[in-house]
TrEMBL record:
Disease resistance protein winged helix domain span: 241-312
Stretches of the chain forming a coiled coil according to its record: 12-78
Name this protein carries in UniProt: LRR and NB-ARC domains-containing disease resistance-like protein
Residues spanning the membrane: none
Gene Ontology biological-process annotations: defense response
Organism: Theobroma cacao
Length: 635
């Protein structure tokens, strides 16, 4: 009896304090309700709808808000009646009821405020949502918290399971864990194969495994729709032409985009490459691309997550309506694997795998613009293979290490802009290549057996912008340039990027015939002693005023014999960066106080190399000292 009287006395005595707390908490509830409604106005649309929990919370908040004002007024009236140290002799029962009502309402308001954070945390505002996160940022920890929160409170889902899957987990083990959670009986489970067990799981909760194209991909598409413009979207969709789990060098991907014409709005290759770098960064930021494996001596690589790639294919197939416009076949055995009739509709096709050594069939591909064939044992193409794909713009045959020859028919691909023969065993370029007047990019990296480049095959490539060839070249054949500037053969005229690796050249004087050169990369050429030959550089500023006039980036790496870039100071009017790595005998840069005067941003190299450089005078050294960036490698 005393406890009952004491509780009633507490209600009456604390009514004043509780009223103040109730008014404070009610104001918090109003602000929280306004925040919820503002978020709904911002985020709710035809796809993202409020959950039942959010609707219920808003209705409870509205009802509570309406009743609290009346309760506060009643409480204030009782406070005014209080006397005798907090107990009222007149209508004590009324005061007790009012005090109790204020106390309980205070608890309800505080609980509703707390429930708001639970509602947003446990159940999202939207029915579907996706967040792409990198590794090591706390995904597992967060998922554990979400899982535990679902276990603590009611929700509209059926099973909520925590299944831990290791990277090398077996399918049967994962299925067993899920089976246990779903309580599938032994009599149903036993004597089932992997596919049968999967079917049983799907039958247990069929609503949770709806069609990817009907439900999942449209949701993922919001990341795609958020991309900045059509060019970025084209570049993203292009990545689905590679097989599952395939990573690609970032530079190679950008060059493919250039070959496809996605970056044609830029007048020069430098700006196009910069835009390509920006697009790769944008796609990674949107979690539509991720970093691939990076190997020693290789550049950065990127790849697509399997689910993102499937979504990209779905979009490229026009939401699944045109399955034949993009053909991607891994572990292919023949062209027939796709069905020859499907090739008639194909715009892009890629064939990958070590299971085929020849392509005896000749598909009819009037619309085909892109053909990638890689990582196979292919040795040759049939003579007429390219006759029926004259719209081809990009042909990538790299990483077919047993490919030894190309058919002359390749010369019929007059619309070709990109040709990659890197890492093949081709011994000779066919003369027919001379007809590829639109070819902008020719890549011959690691073509160890290429010993013959016929004069007719390459001297007519007037549109050539990017040319890469390495491994054993002793010199550029003299027919590729003329002793007189920019007359006769002009196949170097449009070159803007030159990448030289593992060659036996002693100098690169032929670069004088590439006036639009913007990027020069030279690595691991043990015999290279000078970039521009000494007797040539004397007086060359008058005869070749455009030499290095557009050069923006100079990268020199692991050149043990290199002593000179030029024998005399050069203007380098556009030079922005020079990187020097492991070039111990390069003791002088071709700079005077007017070189790269308004353009140079950085000279990067080892501190000991910089300290050992020789200068015309201390004034010139001081001019460039502020540009030096120490990139000393840790020992």
């Amino acid at each position: 009896m005393w406890n009952s009287i004491s509780n009633r006395a507490d209600y009456i005595r604390d009514v004043g304090n509780n009223l103040e707390s109730l008014e404070y908490e009610m104001e918090r509830l109003r602000r929280t309700k306004e925040d919820v409604e503002a978020r709904l106005d911002c985020e709710e649309n035809e796809w993202f709808q409020r959950t039942h929990e959010v609707t219920d919370w808003l209705e409870r908040a509205q009802r509570l808000e309406a009743s609290v004002e009346e309760i506060i007024q009643e409480g204030k009236q009782e406070v005014q009646k209080k006397c005798l140290g907090g107990f009222c002799l007149y209508d004590c029962c009324s005061s007790n009821q009012a005090g109790k009502k204020v106390s309980e309402t205070l608890k309800s308001v505080a609980e509703l405020i707390t429930l708001n954070s639970m509602c947003w945390y446990g159940i999202s505002l939207v029915t579907w949502w996706m967040r792409g996160l990198k590794g090591g940022v706390g995904k597992t920890t967060l998922l554990k918290k979400v899982n535990n929160k679902f276990l603590d409170r009611s929700h509209s889902f059926k099973p909520v399971m925590w299944i831990l899957v290791s990277k090398d987990a077996e399918v049967e083990r994962v299925q067993e864990l899920i089976r246990n959670e779903l309580n599938i009986p032994d009599r149903v489970w036993e004597n089932q194969n992997v596919d049968g067990k999967a079917a049983e799981i799907f039958r247990s909760y069929p609503s949770e495994f709806s069609g990817m194209g009907d439900h999942v991909f449209p949701i993922l598409k919001f990341s795609y729709d958020g991309l900045s413009d059509d060019t970025v979207k084209k570049c993203f969709l292009y990545c689905c032409v590679f097989p599952e789990d395939h990573d690609i060098e970032k530079n190679e991907l950008i060059e493919l985009w250039i070959g496809e014409g996605f970056l044609d709005k830029f007048d020069n290759i430098y700006d196009a490459r910069n835009e390509g770098e920006f697009i790769v960064g944008s796609l990674k930021f949107a979690c539509l691309l991720e970093d691939g494996v990076r190997y020693r001596f290789s550049t950065k690589r990127v790849m697509m997550h399997d689910v993102i790639r499937d979504m990209a294919l779905w979009l490229a197939h026009e939401n699944g309506k045109k399955e034949n416009n993009i053909l991607v076949q891994d572990h292919v055995t023949s062209v027939k694997a796709h069905g020859l009739t499907r090739w008639k509709e194909a715009v892009r096709a890629s064939l990958w795998g070590t299971s085929f050594t020849s392509l005896s069939e000749t598909p009819f591909c009037p619309n085909l613009q892109t053909l990638l064939v890689g990582r196979s044992h292919l040795r040759m193409f049939p003579t007429g293979f390219f006759h029926l794909m004259l719209a081809l713009r990009v042909l990538n045959l790299s990483e077919n290490q047993e490919l030894r020859m190309l058919p002359e028919g390749i010369g019929e691909l007059i619309n070709l802009h990109y040709l990659n023969l890197s890492l093949t065993s081709i011994g000779e370029l066919p003369v027919g290549i001379k007809n590829l007047k639109n070819l902008k990019i020719l890549l011959l990296d690691d073509t160890y057996f290429l010993t013959k480049i016929p004069k007719e095959a390459i001297s007519s490539l007037f549109s050539l912008t990017i040319f890469k060839h390495d491994e054993g070249m002793e010199d550029i054949p003299p027919f590729l340039y003329n002793s007189k500037p920019m007359t006769g053969h002009e196949c170097f005229r449009n070159l803007s990027l030159v990448d030289i690796l593992l060659c036996s050249m002693v100098n690169l004087t032929w670069l004088a015939h590439a006036p639009l050169l913007q990027t020069l990369l030279v690595s691991r050429c043990n015999l290279l002693t000078e970039v521009i030959r000494g007797d040539f550089s004397n007086g060359a500023t008058e005869e070749y005023p455009d030499l290095f006039s557009n050069l923006t980036t100079l990268y020199l790496s692991e050149l043990p014999s290199l002593e000179w870039i030029c024998w005399q100071a050069w203007p380098f009017a556009e030079l922005k960066e020079i990187h020097v790595i492991n070039c111990p005998n390069l003791r002088k840069l071709p700079f005077n106080s007017n070189s790269a005067k308004n353009s140079l941003k950085a000279i990067k190299g080892d501190k000991s190399w910089w300290d050992g450089l020789l200068w015309e005078d201390e004034t010139v050294k001081l001019v460039f000292a502020s540009k030096f960036q120490d990139e000393t490698l840790d020992s």
